[in-house]
Amino acid sequence: MPFCMLAVISCLIAWVPIVIAHGYVTGIVIGGTYYSGYLIPTFPYEKNPPEVIAWSTTATSLGFVDGTGYASPDIICHQNAKPGAKTADIDAGGTVELQWTTWPESHHGPVVDYLANCNGDCSTVDKSKLEFFKIGESGLIDDSNPPGKWGSDDLIAKNNSWSVKIPTTIKSGNYVLRHEIIALHSAENKDGAQSYPQCINLKVTGSGTDSPPGTLGTALYKDTDAGLQINIYQKLSGYTIPGPPLCPGGSGGSGGSNDSNTNTSSSGQPGSTTTTSALATTPVQATTSTYKQPTAPPQPPATPTSSAITLPSGLASNLLDGSYSF
């Protein structure tokens, strides 16, 4: 085998651990009931994948949306996302636990959560018309030792999971929950921040009447936002969490307490104190069936036997032409 070919193969092998390091939500727990996430390693390759509450995506390389995509529909619920076919019931004031694959420790950054009213069936909603209001955020918690402790670090400490409390005063209806980690390890570069949005469908029931104003997904961020263009490897005097301010009744995520001396909300006010909410012990009966996650790690469909390493579609060419970044 020519030396140049060996060199290419060696480079591809070296990149594989980095590619699979990026994460996604594998499961959701609401009121004691488990719902499968959109399982990226298998569902895109199945002719008839299970119907789930999570939105689908074509991001099979576990990639991200950067600053060049903030005005693109991809920033709403990830690359080429489509609504989940199912919806999970939850009481206003209830908690959603989102379970991630192992999140890379180097990918420090905030965790933010939004809701958008579908004003109808979320399974057929036009994502470009969804208006999101922020219900949770956790940014820079401790900057005493750069790159500091972030919301993402608390997510890792909580066994790669995150709990989101639905505001108790929210109006009943069908909503899309937009959950997102923003990795800032390359944010000192233009468009270097990496967004990993994940969406699920919820039916919220309660006696609340609040309908907070929202922002279109394609208008949530700008590549010049202070919280998206920043060098986290130097001492920071503060941090502005990207996106609109928290809505009334919003809170932090489950990862611990934000330090108000270092963390600032997008409204310019001290960041909200993060609260930890235990999951309800009494299950909330969902109106739809749930998909049980396989006991064994999901695998892509079988491919012809080969000594070559099989990479996600398009990844090899992207690596070779330099169009894929980490």
UniProtKB/TrEMBL annotation:
This is Auxiliary Activity family 9 catalytic domain-containing protein. Keywords: Disulfide bond, Secreted, Signal. Residues 1-21 form the signal peptide. GO terms for cellular component: extracellular region. It holds the Pfam family AA9. Residues 283-292 have a biased composition (Polar residues). Residues 22-236 form the Auxiliary Activity family 9 catalytic domain. Residues 244-312 are annotated as: Disordered. Residues 257-282 have a biased composition (Low complexity). InterPro entries: AA9, AA9_LPMO. Its cofactor is Cu(2+). It comes from Elaphomyces granulatus. The keyword Transmembrane does not apply. It is found in: Secreted.
